[in-house]
Design goal:
5-stranded antiparallel sheet; Immunoglobulin-like; 2 domains; globular; 9-stranded mixed sheet
Length: about 240
Amino acid sequence: MAILSGCLGGSDGVENPKMDMKMELGFAPEDGQPLSGRVSLYGKALNPVEDSVPLLSKDFASGTPVSFTPEEMDAALKLSLSRHGKDTSSLRDTTVHFNVVAASGDREAFIGGFRYRRLGGTAGFAKAEGSDPGAFGKLVKTYGLKKAVKAFSGRLGFQGISLGIDYIFIPGSPYHASIKKDSSFTVARMSEGMYNIVGADSDSALLYESTDTLSTADSAYSAKAWSTIFVIPDH
């Protein structure tokens, strides 16, 4: 099962990319009260049932942005590849897409669509949506933390049962749930938002994407239909 969505290639000919191209993320509650918590970066295609380890994690506190540097990202990518028995010597020309999950007490935030890019002697970050696909640089953002959604319930629907789906997950996040005998599932905790979900059999060999978007604004969710086999790419 792939853990990253990106391309890893070339020789590791650059050891010190420009370090000013870092990413700084700040988090604050809507009521302005001080808080502390943890922020994690997850490869966009990660299946949390197969591999729950984020690329990078750091603690944060209100008023102090958390920094992620190209050097840290490269080290994390090498460690992740090594854990999966892959070659760690080729990180020169690299593009990796990832999501951010921040949690503090009963508050949580999921922010998707980030990109890390390394090309030759330059490396940096971008918020992918609406940006130049070839752009990279310094990224500074602050996000609000809303109350986490707990025990969100849903159902597979008849087609999901016939396909033999045993669990569901939201790619690039820690959010997942097992399917009960009555075809229902409960996600223990997640951030407010809208998500595309993927279903899998017990061996994680067959993957299906729901055609019904999950919204935490609803009281419950029903996946009425599922697409053909959904393949998460290795690169």
